[in-house]
Putative lipid II flippase MurJ
Amino acid sequence: MAKDSINEKTLSSQNNQDNDAVEAVPTVLGGRNGDSEASMEVIESAPVAPQDEDAALSAPETTISEEQEVTTAPTEREVKSDRRELVKSASLVALGNLGSSLLGMLRQSFVASTGPLISGPFIASLSPAQKFNDFIVNGSVPGALIPTFNDYAEDREALRRLVFTIVNLVLIIMTISSVGYFFVAPWFTNTILAAGFHAQEKLLTLQYTRIVFFSLLALGPFAVLQAALYAQKEFGWTAFAAAAYHAGIIAGAIFTAVVGDHLFGGLGHYGLAFGVILGTVGEVVLLIPAMRNQRMRYMFVLDLKHPALRHILKLYAPVAFSFFFSACVAFLDQFLTTLTPCMEVMRQVKSCGDANLSAMNFATLLIQFPGGLVASALSFAVLPTLTTYMREGDIERFKSTLLLGFRLGLLLMIPAAAGLIVLKLPIVTLLFRHGNFTPAQAVVTATVLQNFAYQLPFIAIDQLLISAFYARKNTIIPVAVLVLSVMGYLAVALPFWRTVGVPVMALANTVQNTLHPLILLLILWKTIGSLHLRGVLPALLKMLVATAVMVAAAWGLQFGLGHLHLFASSPFISSLVTVIIAGGIAAIVYFALVIAFKVEEVSMLKGAVMAKLGKK
């Protein structure tokens, strides 16, 4: 691959000691010195001309001072300050994500109530717009936009010019693409999106996907503005703005349920698709107060010669490939899922493509709930800090911050995975078993959820490791590892999708997302030396013991509550009581044990929450 040639070129400029440590490990992007502890940002100020930028790119590789080569361990005060800042930022992002995730669950509950004949086509129709947005702009947020915008943090006017150059460029691309997709949508829908659907479902999918694709006119600019605010450590509005997307779809689902076939010959069914448009516009509107806070009013500018654009393209090129590759795998996954056979509980149904695709989507949402609260919040909170440490050449604080993220992620994701596995059916029934969502569909969704849940602890580690590589201006390694991890997905999915069906599709996804962080961790260790992972082991052991006791408590309570006569009357009531009592007591047991075991990160989280509530 191209990364090998890049590695050979840049590592030759390292000193002998560095070469001995990382000789065979590609850790570089676009000619940057990925291994040097004194790694610097590419662009120091906006007025740098393109030819000067090239000189700036090569300068850090040959002018590393002795003070930068020898890093000192961070003082106790610095470590505590780092921890407070990380936990505060992550807590703010998590708080915003909590509101968004709760609305997301409510949204999916409304979508599920429409039944698979509507929810299946709607869910299938979302993929093209989401994947195209990820490929064009959204995927560049952590790896290219945030680090580059962070370089301009001290020059607000230059940052504003850069940000709105990209916003306007993205808006032009999305407009042209939306019009073009309108004409290719019939072929794409029949061949890939809805291959296993009935003719009527295929037609509805086509109509939905044409409408939804125009949401890119808001989704694309939103991603750029979000990155600019994250680079300024403006975390509040950006996290809460995402809730507008779910609110729009909920409004569309209510419109569909109320109006349905009663308006203009069934046009009410398009409420879901137009709800996506409403939600994406709402996302941008909710960012306006944050943009005003940062003095970043809209600017009609298209500076295609801006030196930062070339730098962003260099950083994002490997990531763009990864999103293109991921999109291909995702569409393959969707194609196979729509053709998977029915599980035993749904043998009375002739075709289960729509139900199986819906189950995968609903289970994915439940996995994304803790993922958004913990993994995404930590990764976005830690990226600016890691980038700063790499620019300053402070490798020890880089490692300590990353290790802190590991411990915080595992503290919350391990019990989250266990809780979803033990209480999977009550949770699915509580959230989705309404309207036309049947008990058999609940069983299928719960099975998929269990096979998804095993990956949760690894997702937390994965997001932090990707941020670590992005902070080092290295987007090649995560892409290369993605290709390797997809091999694991294919090894599980392809041999068994026709026989085992949708459960194996979820398990294949888990294998992929487990392999990715494990390989990244090994490469990072080989690149920058020991990450001091032994320091995580005592806390990890305490978390596992507390989780085991929590699982026993949740299972025992669920078993006992199932024998009460109250639970025979209403599945909703039984599920609600089970989730509240069994889930609540199990959570109390877990946190009581980790507090008793004196796991340090618990007190840090408590302090952050109390500070947000104004009590500390």
Summary: The radius of gyration is 25 Å. The chain has 24 helices and no strands. Confidence is low (pLDDT under 50) at residues 1-72, 608-616.
